[in-house]
Design brief:
Layout (H helix, E strand, L loop, with lengths): L2 H36 L8 H9 L17 E2 L20 E4 L4 E3 L8 E2 L17 H5 L3 H14 L9 E4 L14 E4 L11 H14 L5 H10 L4 H4 L3
C-alpha cells in the first residue's frame, strides 16, 4: 500500500479548508473597514434637548462673545434691498450682551453681513470716503420699511420706535443693501430714538479705513464678527 499517497489527500483537504476560512475572515474584516470608513459616528440629539433649544429665550452673553462666525456675503444692490435670504418667522435670535447700554448682536446665521463687490481698497477715495456717498446707495424708506416688518417677525421682535433697521456692515464701510446685511437692532434702555452705540463704532472704523490705518476688508470682517469689540480687535 502507498501510505504517502493516502496521507497527502487529507493534508491537502485540510490546507484548502484553512485557506477558505482565512479568506472569508479577511473578506469580513475588509467589509467592516469599508463600513466604518463611509459611516461616520453620529451623535443623536435627545428630543427634549432639541425642543428646548428651539424654543429657548435668548440669554445674555458675556461681553465680546458672538455665535459661530458665518462667511460674509457679496451682494451688489445700490438703492434697493436685495432679498438674498428666505427666513421663517421666529427663526432668528438677537444676542443680548448688555441691554442697559444697547449692546446686542445679530444672529450670524440669519445676518452674516454682506458687502458691495464694486467697492474695493483701490477706489475707496472716490466712493465710501467721498462726502455724500451713502446717500447715493441708501434705499428709500418705502423699500426698507416693508422688509423691516418681515425681519422683525423673523427675529421675534415687536415694532418699537427706537429699533433701527440697521446695516450690520454699514454703508460707509461698503456694506450692501441685502437681507443678509440688515437686522432690527434693539436700542439701549431709555433711548428715545434710533441712535445707538453701534453708530460710533461705524464712524471710528470709517475714519480708520479712509486714513488707511486699517484695510477695508479688515474693518468689514471685524464689524461683521462682533461690532462691540471691533475697534479693540483692530487695535484702534
Amino acid at each position: 500500500m502507498n501510505f504517502r499517497k493516502h496521507l497527502t489527500l487529507p493534508a491537502a483537504f485540510l490546507f484548502a479548508t484553512l485557506a477558505l476560512t482565512g479568506c472569508q475572515q479577511g473578506t469580513h474584516s475588509a467589509a467592516e473597514a469599508v463600513t466604518k470608513a463611509v459611516s461616520p459616528a453620529v451623535s443623536p440629539v435627545a428630543p427634549a434637548a432639541a425642543s428646548q433649544a428651539a424654543s429657548s429665550v435668548p440669554a445674555a452673553a458675556p461681553a465680546g462673545t458672538s455665535a459661530a462666525a458665518t462667511d460674509v456675503k457679496s451682494v451688489h444692490s445700490p438703492g434697493l434691498v436685495a432679498i438674498d435670504e428666505q427666513l421663517a418667522a421666529g427663526q432668528c435670535s438677537a444676542k443680548t450682551v448688555d441691554a442697559a447700554t444697547g449692546e446686542y448682536l445679530p444672529d450670524p446665521t440669519c445676518t452674516p453681513g454682506s458687502t458691495d463687490p464694486a467697492i474695493t481698497e483701490d477706489n475707496i477715495d472716490s466712493t465710501i470716503c467721498k462726502s455724500g456717498y451713502t446717500a447715493t446707495v441708501r434705499p428709500p424708506a418705502s423699500d426698507t420699511d416693508k422688509v423691516k416688518a418681515e425681519s422683525l417677525r423673523e427675529y421675534g421682535l415687536s415694532p418699537a420706535k427706537t429699533t433701527e433697521y440697521d446695516h450690520l456692515i454699514s454703508l460707509e464701510l461698503a456694506g450692501s443693501n441685502s437681507v443678509s446685511n440688515l437686522w432690527p437692532e434693539p436700542n439701549k434702555a431709555g433711548a428715545t430714538g434710533t441712535t445707538n452705540p453701534k453708530d460710533a463704532v461705524e464712524n471710528t472704523l470709517h475714519k480708520a479705513v479712509c486714513s488707511h490705518q486699517v484695510t477695508l476688508v479688515a474693518a468689514q470682517k471685524a464689524i461683521a464678527h462682533n461690532w462691540i469689540t471691533a475697534v479693540k480687535d483692530l487695535g484702534l
